Amino acid sequence: MKQTGILFFPAFDWSLGTSHPEREERLLYTQEQLFEEGVLDLPQIRQFTPRIASLNDAAQAQALFPTPSSYAEPLEPHLIAAGSAILLGEARVKGEITNGFVLVRPPGHHSGATVWGNRGFCTLNNEAILINQLRARYGIKKIAVVDTDVHHGDGTQDIFYHDPDVLFISLHQDGRTLYPGSGFIDEQGGPNAWGQTLNIPLPPGTGDEGYHYTLETWVLPRLQAFGPELIINSAGQDNHFTDPLASMNLTASGYGRITELLRPDLAVLEGGYSIEGALPFVNLAILLALAGEDYHHVREPQKIGRSSLPFASLKSYLETLKKQSLMVKPDFLIHNVKFFPQGDWVYIPHSVYYDTEGFQETRHDFVRKCNHCAGTVYIESQRTSSQKSVLVRIPFAACPQCEQAGYDLWDYVQHQHQEIKSGVFQNQLHNQHDVWQRKKD
Q1: Does the structure show a pLDDT above 50 at 434?
Q2: Distance CA 269, CA 109 (A)
Q3: Does pLDDT of 158 surpass 70?
Q4: Of 145, 167, 329, 412, which residue has the fewest beta carbons closer than 10 angstroms?
C-alpha cells in the first residue's frame, strides 16, 4: 500500500513574538483540522516523531559565523526542524514511505551558504541540510528542489548555485514587489552549473490557473529533462489569497493540484502566515494529494477578495519571460587572486540583508571553473569591519584537482591567519569532502 509519512514539529519554544506571523499556531490549527477530518486515521498515513540534527549535519550545508554558540536565539528548534526533514527523507530513500510531508517550523529557505543570524524567519536551511545528508549517507546524486513559496528561495539557491547535480526551481511573486528582492531570470547558476537554476517571477494576482499552467508548460518539462532521483517541494503556503504578507491568489484546492502535478517525494513546509484562514485547509489539501485522496472538496471559509490577474495576461507574460530567459547568456568575470591554486576562478560579489536583525552581510565569492565537478568555492564573508570569516567548500564528487585546490586554500588560510579562534568543520564522507569554516581576525 502507498504510504505517506507526516511529521509535526510546532516548535513551542521558538517564537519571534506572540503577535508575529511566524509562531507556533501556524501548525496547531493544522493539527486540529487533520484530527477533525480524520485524515490521520487513513491506513496510508504514517506519523513520525521529530528528531534533532547535529551541528555537523548542518555544517555539511552551511557555515555558521562567527560560531554556533554566538547566536542570540537557541539553535535547537532549527536543528529539530532540519533533523525532522532528514528523518522523513531517509524514510523515503529506504522505501518505508512513498512520499512525505514535513510540517515543521522554523522555516529555512532564506538561509544560505553563510549564516550570521536569522533572515526571513530562517536560520538553518532544512532542505539543504536534508539534501547533503542524503547524498553523503545514501549516494543520492541528482535532486530537484521546486520552491513554491511566495518568496524567492534565495538561500537554497545560494547553497546549490554552483552544483550541476541539483536543479533548483523557484516560482514566486516578482522580487520587484516582495522580499527578498531577488529571483530574476538572469539568475541561472554559476559557471559550472549554468541552467541548473530556474527562477519564474510571477506577477501579483496570479491564481490557481496561472500556477498550474506554469507548472505544466515550464516546470514539469524541465524536471523531466533533468531526470532527478528525488523531488523536494519547498512548500510555502503564503501564495494563498488570505496571506497577509503577499499578494497572490492561490486556493487550498489549487495547492492540492500543485502537489498532484509535482508528485514530490517530500514536501517541506516553508512560509504561510494566514494561520486560521489558509494553513489548516492548504495543509489538508496537500496531505490528501500526497496520499492519493480527493482534495477538491477542501474549501477555506473565506472567498477571494483580491483582484486576480486575467489568465490571458499571465500567459502572454510567461511567453515573454521564457523568451527572455533563453536570451540570457553566461557572463562571468575571471579574477585569479595570487594565492589561488591553478585554474580559472570566477568572481561573484554577493550581498545579503538580514531583515530580522537589520544588518548587511558582504561577500566575495570565487568559484573554480571545472568541466568535471561543481568546483571549489572560496568565500570571504563580512558582517562588520571587525567580523570577517572565510569559507572553503569542496563539492560532492569533487575531481582530484578541485579537491586538492580546496585543501591548498584552507592550508593557506590557516597559515596566514594563525589567530583563528575556532577550528574547521571538516567532513570526509565516502571520499567526498566538504570543508567549511569560520573566523579570521
Answers
A1: no
A2: 10
A3: yes
A4: 329
What is the distance between the alpha carbons of residues 402 and 82, in angstroms, rounded to a whole number? Answer: 29
Residue 402 burial by Cβ neighbours in a 10 Å radius (0-12, 13-18, 19+): buried
The separation between CA 252 and the C-alpha centre of its own chain, rounded to angstroms, equals 22
* Grid cell in block for residue 254: 489549487
Cα separation, 438 vs 441, whole angstroms: 10
Angle at 152 between CA 318 and CA 137, to 5 degrees: 115
DSSP assignment of 50-71 equals --PPPHHHHHTT-EESS-GGG-
What is the value of pTM for the model shown?
0.92
- For residue range 53-63, list pLDDT tens digits in order: 999 999 999 99
The terminus-to-terminus CA distance of the chain in angstroms comes to 57
Displacement of CA 88 from its chain's centroid (Å):
16
| C-beta separation of 168 from 191 below 8 A | no
Q: What is the pLDDT of residues 385-397, one digit of tens each?
A: 777 899 999 999 9
Could you read off the pLDDT of 319-355 as tens digits, one per residue? 999 999 999 999 999 988 889 999 999 999 999 999 9
Helix axes 279-290, 252-262, angle to 10 degrees: 30
Is position 110 annotated as part of the catalytic site?
yes
Asked if 180 and 353 touch (Cβ cutoff 8 Å), the reply is yes
Q: pLDDT digit string (tens) for 63-107?
A: 999 888 888 778 999 999 999 999 999 999 999 999 999 999 999
Percent of the chain at pLDDT > 90 equals 78
Q: How far apart are CA 107 and CA 9, in angstroms?
A: 11
Instruction: State the burial class of residue 427 (Cβ atoms within 10 Å of its Cβ: 0-12, 13-18, 19+).
Output: middle
3-state SS of 166-233? Answer: EEEEEEEECCCCCCCCCCCCCCCCCCCCCCCEEEEEECCCCEHHHHHHHHHHHHHHHHHHHCCCEEEE
**Whole-number Å distance between alpha carbons of 432 and 355:** 35
Contacts of 54 (CB under 8 A, 6+ apart): 79
Q: Position 336: which residue type?
A: N
Among 73, 92, 39, 45, which residue's Cα sits nearest to residue 268? 92
Confidence category of residue 418, pLDDT binned at 50, 70, 90 = low
Catalytic residue among 110, 151, 172, 433: 110
Number of H helices, E strands in the chain: 11, 18
Nearest to 83, CA basis, from 65, 64, 66, 108 = 108
Domains of the chain (ranges plus CATH)?
4-327 (3.40.800.20), 333-440 (no CATH)
Helices (H), ranges, 232-383 = 252-262, 279-290, 311-327
